[in-house]
Amino acid sequence: MEVIIAKDYETLSRQAATIIAAQVIGQPDSVLGLATGSTPVGTYKHLVALYREGIIDFSRVKTFNLDEYYGVAPDNPCSYRWFMEENLFKHINILPENTYIPNGLAQDTAAECREYEEKIHRAGGIDLQLLGIGGNGHIGFNEPGNSFQPATHLVDLDQQTIEANSRFFASPDQVPRQALSMGIKSIMAARRIILLANGKAKARAVYEMIRGPITPELPASVLQLHPQAAVIIDQEAAALL
Ligand code: F6R
Predict the structure, then answer these.
(1) What predicted TM-score, i.e. pTM, was given to this entire model?
(2) What is the pLDDT along the chain (241 residues), one digit of tens a residue?
(3) Residue 240 lies in a domain
């Protein structure tokens, strides 16, 4: 696992955007795995700027997002579909039909998860997966537990995740208790992974991910086994290394 310590969030975001841009320039029909949350917002801003400067063309790119809240409609401003539209998709020339996010309103969640995996497979697999990390070490919404969940699945969110994500909702009781999330196998199948983390709230999870044992109790630790995983962190997130 390559560890890159950036001096601050701005530098981290620029580095991540540069890696994604290089991927898309080198392979214009790339399949990108994308994350939501606070961490990648700066990266998406840089990608939009690179698009506006004419440096990247997203017209042949496909994207698959890691997760979506269960029971939340795409037009709800708290949905991850909404987040992606606002922070990236509506500012670039990606085709709407090439942007995939699990359907949070699916009645048959098992079928939705299975079909999501099939769509990734039909697209040729993920070339570059962007990840954040939860304070509890989750990636996607793969919460700490007894085993690594392999494929896309319905997840019960951890109390710590509900509390951390309540900042995006009017009150903590409005945070959905479940989500559809790509599994550990879905993430590990990506040909290349970059995980971003900033701020001191992530320092413990970052330390455990890089230096700790590989365990489903700290899901991100599995990335130690990925042959092409890079972690880009700011100095606060690197504080315990
Ligand atoms: C988001 C996701 C999560 C976040 C993580 C960190 O799609 O899958 O794993 O990356 O919860 O969130 P932030 O960046 O808000 O600290």
Answers:
(1) 0.97
(2) 999 999 999 999 999 999 999 999 999 999 999 999 999 999 999 999 999 999 999 999 999 999 999 999 999 999 999 999 999 999 999 999 999 999 999 999 999 999 999 999 999 999 999 999 999 999 999 999 989 999 999 999 999 999 999 998 988 888 999 999 999 999 999 999 999 999 999 999 999 999 999 999 999 999 999 999 999 999 999 999 9
(3) no
223 lies in a domain?
A: yes
Q: How far is the CA of 119 from the centre of ligand 1 (A)?
A: 22
- For tokens 């044992």, name the residue: 213
153 is catalytic: no
Q: Is residue 166 part of a domain?
A: yes
46 is known as an active-site residue: no
Structural domain harbouring 204: 2-234
Report whether 237 contacts 9 (CB < 8 A): no
Q: Which residues contact 66 (CB under 8 A, 6 or more apart)?
A: 33, 34, 35, 36, 131, 139, 140, 141, 181, 182, 187
Q: Of these residues, 65, 87, 103, 136, which one is catalytic?
A: 136
Catalytic residue from among 67, 112, 117, 208: 67
Q: Is residue 127 among the annotated active site residues?
A: no
Look up the CATH number of the domain holding residue 9. 3.40.50.1360
Q: What's the domain count of the chain?
A: 1
| Ligand 1, CB within 6 Å, residue ranges | 35-39, 66-67, 132-134, 138-141
